[in-house]
Write a structure and sequence with these properties.
The complex is a heterodimer of chains A (231) and B (209). Chain A has helices at 3-25, 27-47, 58-77, 80-87, 91-97, 100-129, 137-162, 168-196, 200-229. Chain A is mainly alpha-helical and 231 residues long. Chain A has one domain (3-229). In chain A, helix 4 runs parallel beside helix 7, helix 6 (100-129) crosses helix 7 (137-162) and helix 7 (137-162) packs antiparallel against helix 8. With 209 residues, chain B is an alpha/beta fold. Chain B has one domain (8-208): 3-Layer(aba) Sandwich (Rossmann fold). Chain B contains five helices and nine strands; from the N terminus they run βββαβββαααβαββ. Chain B has helices at 47-55, 98-108, 115-124, 140-152, 170-186, and strands spanning 8-18, 21-32, 36-41, 62-69, 72-74, 83-86, 158-162, 188-193, 204-208. In chain B, the strands form two sheets. In chain B, strands 6-7-8-3-9 form a five-stranded parallel sheet, with helices on both faces. In chain B, strands 2-1-4-5 form a four-stranded antiparallel sheet, with helices on one face. In chain B, a hairpin with a 2-residue loop joins strand 1 and strand 2. Chain B is globular and about 45 Å long. The chains are: A mainly alpha (231), B alpha/beta (209).
């Protein structure tokens, strides 16, 4: 077996292990979905459906609300994959057995799966309960996917950094937020243009920025993870 | 005695500080394949810490830990395939079954395996027929046996046993003797214990104070 094959197999095994553990314990899933659902329901009860006549900046406001709901729900669950290893004291067994890059990739995949489920549930609820008009569903899906990739690329490394610290929750948000500001600004503006239906020409720039952001954070994480994970 | 590997463990002036407290200092030793070292000492003397340094879970403040195998020199954290570790600190996944734990660790180590092989390993450590139970449902003695299966999964030439018989019954203690005897043919064993009866396992005894 080549090194690359070993890495891929180990990363997949870690992803499947985390998925199986999560389906049995539902630590992260319950926290993330409860937060997302309660946020969207609270927004819909508080604001009710808003029509464009009443607010011309409506798509931008809706896009900002959607990404805030996604961001804070993600904060409650995305650190779990690493924090759980440290709290259950299984990290030592994993450190001795798995290549560090495989650990990073496996946790990244798990966080991505969790976030995509969160995005799907939150966006559907958001569109239905707040009666959001989506002019370009394809572009919206592409922007949500690109934004999720960026969010996961940025937060997975930070989750590994804070896993051994005290006050993990606060530290996770404090360290992640500055890194996520460019992603959020771009994702909100891109999502607004998808809701308005300004077309793929208008959506291409934010998509490119989000993908470039993801690539930069992913490559940086690959280089840095070893120093974060090692004893 | 002929051994299956040419492993060599070398510690050179190894020391570790926790803040101002000097836990270990100036430990130098060399062990070759077929040898067993017992590390003895009272609680808090640094036995477990020394084993964590040897397996690469901690880095020494001073000195170096080296493993030589196949003509190469490694730091322990660079060669996880050479080391197996059993310790009270070692926790496996409680939400997975014994068999699922072994399957997972075999996959991340890149080992080719079948469920039959993993079940045979479970039977070898006294967990035959219990591989499907969740680790959360295991007694402390059964969990200790699963730690042995985890450590022996990749047949490591360096086996580190911290408090090897803790929580084990008489048959479990006999299993430990068998493991140490088999490891003499495979490579090096380092045992950390504060039980004087376990000093008989060693060719050498290192006393920490």
């Amino acid at each position: 077996m080549s090194d690359l094959q070993h890495l891929a197999r180990a990363a997949l095994a870690i992803f499947k292990k985390d998925l199986r553990s999560e389906l049995r314990t539902r630590y992260a899933l319950n926290a993330v979905l409860l937060f997302a659902v309660s946020t969207v329901v609270a927004l819909s009860l508080g604001m009710g459906p808003i029509t464009p006549v009443r607010n011309p900046d409506l798509p931008l406001v809706q896009a900002a609300l959607l990404w805030m709901a996604l961001l804070f729900a993600a904060f409650t669950g995305l650190a779990r994959a690493f924090v759980q290893e440290e709290e259950a004291r299984t990290a030592a067994a994993l450190r001795l057995a798995a290549p560090p890059i495989a650990v990073y990739l496996g946790k990244l995949l798990f966080n991505l799966a969790l976030l995509l489920l969160l995005v799907l549930v939150t966006t559907l609820l958001f569109v239905v309960l707040l009666r959001v008009h989506v002019a370009d569903a394809g572009l919206l899906a592409a922007l949500l996917l690109a934004g999720s990739l960026g969010l996961v690329a940025a937060t997975t490394l930070i989750a590994a950094i804070i896993a051994r610290a005290s006050a993990k929750g606060a530290l996770f948000a404090v360290l992640s937020f500055p890194l996520l500001v460019p992603l959020l600004v771009t994702a909100i503006r891109g999502t607004a243009s998808a809701l308005e239906g300004r077309g793929w020409a208008a959506g291409a720039a934010p998509l490119q920025v989000l993908l470039a952001y993801t690539l930069a954070l992913f490559v940086a994480s690959l280089f840095l993870f070893n120093s974060v994970w090692e004893a | 005695m002929t051994t299956e590997s040419d492993i060599r463990l070398e510690l050179e002036g190894v020391g570790l500080d926790y803040g101002p407290r000097r836990v270990l200092d100036g430990i130098s030793l060399a062990l070759g394949a077929g040898e067993t070292l017992v590390v003895a000492g009272a609680n808090g003397s640094g036995k477990s810490t020394l084993l964590r340094l040897i397996c690469g879970l901690q880095r020494p403040t001073r000195g170096a830990v080296r493993l030589r195998a196949g003509g190469q020199v490694y730091r322990p954290d660079q060669a996880p395939w050479l080391v197996g570790w059993v310790a009270p600190d070692l926790q496996l996944y409680r939400e997975l079954s014994g068999l699922e734990n072994l399957r997972f660790f075999a996959d991340v180590r890149g080992l080719k395996h079948t469920d039959a092989q993993l079940e045979a390993l479970l039977a070898e450590v006294g967990l035959g027929g219990r591989g499907g139970d969740l680790l959360a449902a295991y007694s402390s003695g059964m969990a200790q046996r699963l730690r042995y299966a985890y450590a022996l999964l990749h047949a490591p030439p360096l086996l580190l046993l911290d408090e090897p018989t803790v929580t084990l019954d008489e048959r479990g203690a006999a299993l430990v003797e068998q493991v140490i005897a088999r490891q003499r043919r495979r490579g090096i064993t380092v045992v950390a214990t504060n039980d004087p009866r376990e000093e008989r396992y060693g060719d050498y005894v290192l006393r920490l104070s």
